[in-house]
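Hi support team,

I'm opening this ticket because the web form for multi-chain structure prediction keeps timing out on my end. I have pasted the exact lines I submitted so you can reproduce it. The total is 318 residues across two entries, so I didn't expect it to be a heavy job. Is there a limit I'm missing, or should I split the entries? Thanks in advance, R.K.
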Amino acid sequence: MRCGAEEHILDAARKAGLRLPSACEQGWDLACAVRVLEGRWDNGDARRYFEADREAGFALICTAKPLSDMRVETHQRAAMQEHRRALRLPAPRGAWGEVP
Amino acid sequence: MAIREKPHAQGKVKAGDVSQRVGVEQLEARGINVQQLIDKLIDAAGAEFTTYYYYTILRVYLAGHEDYKEICEDARLEDRAHFELITPRIYELGGSIPYDIREFADRAGCPDAYLPHTDNGQHAPSQPPTAAEILEVLLEAERCAIRTWSEICDITFGKDPRTYDMASRILQEEVEHEAWFIELLSKERDGVIRPSGHFRRGVPGEAPYSKNAPFYNP
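Hello R.K., no limit was hit. The queue was backed up. Here is the completed structure from your submission:
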């Protein structure tokens, strides 16, 4: 899919017809977490995002803009929660964005 | 004459067993993951509680805009009412709010509604926040709450009428709050009238859905 440089990746995904999990849509609750396999991104619009998140390759696509072509693995909320817990960093615990 | 069967008189939970809850068993039988629901309710309660706290600060910095202050006060007190409404349901389901308030705040499901120009609450404001800046913080906090309670309505609809009823009441007030702050911000920042359609509370924080027609703590 294509995403503009000033566009949040989740918005572009929706325009492309992809249905991905999200909840707060403010870069906070990790519902939209992805693991970045390739590429660079800017998560500066997220309300809570740590350098350790970036180093571990997690992005919150509701508030992330691409800085290059990217390849990502979606549905990484649980993995990112575990990452935060292991580093004793704050995170909601609920399975946000997962609606049966 | 044969004794009539009473199909609901017994179930999986043994008579006198206080370690199990039929109120939980019945949700699981209908496909609710109760632990996941409890986790979401705790996150949501944390968000209502922290929002109540931050709205206290935001409200006092609306000095001189007494009309906005009053409306902020309604939203502030109603968010506190939501916390009060959610907490008993968490315990009914067999859960507990965290024993450390820091853990509670850290796991809140919505962002901290910091006062602008404080570097996310690190210091007093470096310049006086404008009313528009404060109204924007209030608006985005309400929007997160709407997304939160919509999701809880979705997962409980048709399966858990008690939690659904609670979530629905809270959602209705959050939707009203969003409409208020759209109206105020639109006029204050953009000079555009976008009426909320309603603007009335009898007393501050009346909470017409979550407090004044209660199913708990009347």
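A quick check on our side: Strands of chain A lie at 33-38, 41-42, 58-60, 65-66, 71-73. Let us know if the file doesn't open in your viewer.
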